[in-house]
Amino acid sequence: MGAGKTIRTIYPGIIVVLLSGCADQQSALNPAGEEAQSVYVLFLTMAAGAAIIWLIVIGLMIHAFREGRKQHPQEGSQALILWGGAVFPSAVLLLLLAYTLWLMPNVRPWLGGQEAAPRIEISGEQYWWRIRYRDSEGELLFETANELRLPLGEPTTFSLLARDVIHSFWIPALGGKMDMIPGRTNQLTLTPTRAGIYRGPCAEFCGTSHALMLVTAVVMERRDYDRWIAGRTSRATLPSSDGAVLFVKHGCPACHAVAGTEAVGRIGPDLTFLGERATVGAGALENTPENIARFIRDPSAIKPGATMPAFDMLPEAEIRTLAAWLGGLE
Ligand code: CUA
Predict the structure, then answer these.
(1) Which end of the chain is more exposed for a tag (fewer CB within 10 A), N or C?
(2) What CA–CA distance (Å, rounded) separates 207 from 167?
């Protein structure tokens, strides 16, 4: 087998391996939203254009090598520089600019009149996402963290904020990214076209655990979505339990809230429905009681720079009881 044939055999294999990592929850190449579709078409157009221009340039280079150091008439050389070096690049850039301007309204905040309630406000924190659902009047319905839900096929406009430093909200499968800047409210609209679970990384370096803050978006049918919202807004008082008692005794409510208990802290993530989230620590760990216990013992070991202090001085049995209670909140 010649070297060329070996490469031809291996190359598609490498491509498949490289691309398969993108095919699931976090890929701009597998759009599941109207805005992501626009971005995807723009990407394909630019990639195809770049490939054609690359082929022309390589063709010219091969031609130049074949011709060798021959004398060329001055007029022809100047025309080549004028058309190939100035007119052609200007025309290509102008075309791209026109196309992008035409595309831009699709990825702007949705201004189509009546907005689908509730509205969602997301705030970037070090290193997690505060998520607030508000009704059409702006009244807070409930707060949650790190995992949001969206109705299928409807535009949802997000208000994006930041409390500490600049973060960036980006769910590649649903749409483009938008920075979250302290002191400012940015708007972004996403219209999911396929039900599923999508993941987004923070897209602006915000500190030591920047790579460990992931947001999850669950896209569901309107019927299921309404049922989910209703479940969040009508929360009955939780029965007393050992876990709930320990939660209060060790001071957790200073930072965390659990609806249905006396815990109303707002510094850290709301833990009311921690059990239904896929992960602990905004994507840092899989959501299991063992991992919740690990997080309570030493958050900084899992998320460097996390503001929550270590609670490894608590008796192991108490940590386990707390973790089991928190993991069961759904
Ligand atoms: Cu938040 Cu990077």
Answers:
(1) N
(2) 10
Domain boundaries in the chain? 31-107, 119-232, 242-327
The pLDDT, as a whole number, for residue 260 is 85
Residue 19: pLDDT over 70 = no
Q: What is the mean pLDDT of the chain?
A: 86
Distance 20 CA to ligand 1 centre (A): 26
For residue 311, the model assigns a pLDDT of 92
Instruction: State which ligand 1 atom lies nearest to the alpha carbon of 166.
Output: 1
Mean pLDDT over 114-127 rounds to 81
Tell how far CA 94 is from the center of its chain: 31
Atom of ligand 1 nearest to the CA of 201: 2
182 lines ligand 1 (CB under 6 A): no
Length of the chain: 330
117 confidence band (pLDDT: 50, 70, 90): low
Residue 111 main-chain phi, psi, to 5 deg: -120, 30
C-beta 179 within 6 A of ligand 1:
no
- Among the residue ranges 109-123, 142-156, 185-199, 306-320, the one predicted with the least confidence is 109-123
- At the topology level, CATH places domain 119-232 in Immunoglobulin-like (2.60.40)
What distance in angstroms lies between residue 204's CA and the mean position of ligand 1's atoms?
5
Q: Is the CB of 271 under 6 A from ligand 1?
A: no
**Fold equal for 119-232 and 242-327:** yes
Nearest ligand 1 atom to the CA of 165 is 1
pTM over 0.85: no
CATH entry 3.40.50.300 includes domain 242-327? no
| Nearest residue by C-alpha to atom 1 in ligand 1 | 167
- Please state, in angstroms and rounded to a whole number, the distance separating the CA atoms of residues 71 and 273: 77
Residues 144 and 274: their CA atoms lie apart, in Å, by: 9
Tell me the CA–centroid distance for residue 111 and ligand 1, in Å. 28
What pLDDT score was predicted for residue 7?
A: 46
Dihedral angle sign, alpha carbons of residues 36, 39, 41, 47: negative
Cβ–ligand 1 distance for 201 under 6 Å, the answer no
pLDDT at 290: 93
Phi, psi of 266 (to 5 degrees): -125, 10
